[in-house]
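Journal club prep — side note

Before the paper discussion, L.F. wants everyone to see what a predicted structure for a comparable chain looks like in token form. Sequence:
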Amino acid sequence: MWPFGKKKDAEEAPASENRGTSSNARAELLWKAGSRYLGRKQYLKAIASLQEAYELEPSRLEGRLNLGAALYLAQQPEEALGHLKYVLALEPKNTMALLNIAATYDALGELDESIKTLETLVADRPNWADANFNLAVAYMKQDRLDDATVALRRELTLNPKHEAARTLLNEVHLKPRKRQPEAESSQ
């Protein structure tokens, strides 16, 4: 007989004893696999693993955050939004959730919500890498050049070697400003 044969019924543990433990262990493996796929930029594989883990363990914050990020990165922002809102409902100052939901709002065309979220993040975590840069990018999309300049200068104060911030600041300075309508003088 082969040593790798199928286990006999007597060797198998009753399913009812291990169901809770095995689903928790399976969820853990799926969360980890999904996070690895996310790190490798294999977003569809990440979503598949994270979605299955979510069905087994829906209250895990880190998993919901990663699932939201994977959905956003796979260009499924509508689906991402609910997971990110869930994380922020329980941890309103979760930096990664704030960054991800700001990007998701931007992808959904809700730039005002994106800016509001990034402003909240910068107020709470003024030294967080790239927060001011992301805020500047959002300001640029609304042609708020003065606000973008301030945010980029803050970013460069925190990280003087941030090349993308330097490049964007140069673009801000080269972009023509809209002229303010001259007040009509009294006749």
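L.F.'s comment for the group: The chain has two domains: 22-110, 126-176. Keep this in mind when we get to the figures.
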